[in-house]
Specification:
Four Helix Bundle (Hemerythrin (Met), subunit A), 2 strands, 12 helices
Length: about 240
């Protein structure tokens, strides 16, 4: 079989989801051990890797309801499972959906989530900051509190992912299909935009926790029109109704 002939199957995705979740569990345990021994940067690296593995487990689970015979679906899934932003967004989605608290709890989580999408490499490798002609070591950039928070978030993501996998049907909604079809660069643009997260939190506060619907509606009503949710909200307008599932 050539690379272009490869197709996912439900069985393969089910096995991949279980393996990724198992590996995520091992990674966060190893991160905790490293943190306890004072290896803060390495602990952070493994905690981020654990979160990405959780995201892969969830992406593989959600993919089981798609048209796996379609080569475009295969290509889209492979790109998603290799992309930092999409894996991290997937890992945090069950937590965002289930958390009863909104602004106070979610903003710190969202802030860290966006930082995690930049990748975990700076916490593992020495680098040169060319603009400053300066060598950068991992231990100089990863703070103790960041490492500790990342391990805690990884455990929270793991707990929520297990619950999601046990309780969520594999049937896909229309907006989930629309989100899946969205171009990667468009998704990254929305994901890294603080204005979107203010919009999502506002939706959560009125009981609309559907992440996919929020992304699609924000793209249609704000990003595509060059509008800002915060600016519109300050002017007293109500946020648009979410796309239906």
């Amino acid at each position: 079989m050539t690379d272009n002939e490869f197709r996912f199957t439900v069985e393969l995705l089910r096995e991949y989801s279980a393996a990724s979740l198992s590996n995520a569990t091992e990674l966060v345990e190893e991160a905790s051990l490293l943190y306890e021994q004072g290896h803060v940067a390495r602990a952070y690296f493994l905690a981020v890797a654990s979160i990405e593995e959780i995201g892969k487990a969830l992406l593989a689970f959600d993919a089981q309801g798609r048209n796996l015979a379609d080569s475009a679906v295969t290509a889209k899934l492979r790109r998603a499972m290799e992309d930092h932003s999409q894996k991290i967004a997937a890992a945090f989605s069950p937590m965002l959906l289930s958390n009863p608290n909104t602004r106070e709890v979610l903003m710190p989580v969202i802030d860290l989530m966006i930082h995690l999408t930049l990748g975990r490499e700076p916490s593992m490798y020495a680098d040169i900051l060319y603009a400053e002609s300066k060598v950068q070591l991992p231990r100089s950039i990863v703070r103790d509190v960041a490492s500790k928070d990342c391990i805690r978030l990884s455990r929270d993501c793991l707990s929520n992912a297990r619950k999601y996998l046990a309780e969520t049907p594999r049937d896909r909604t229309r907006v989930e299909d629309q989100l899946f079809a969205m171009k990667l660069e468009q998704f990254k643009k929305i994901f890294n935009k603080q204005d979107f997260w203010w919009y999502y939190i506002a939706q959560c506060e009125i009981g609309n926790r559907d992440f996919a619907a929020s992304v699609i509606t924000y793209q249609r009503e704000y990003l595509s029109k060059g509008n800002s949710f915060e600016r519109t909200n300050r002017n007293g307008s109500d946020p648009p109704i979410l796309s239906s599932s």
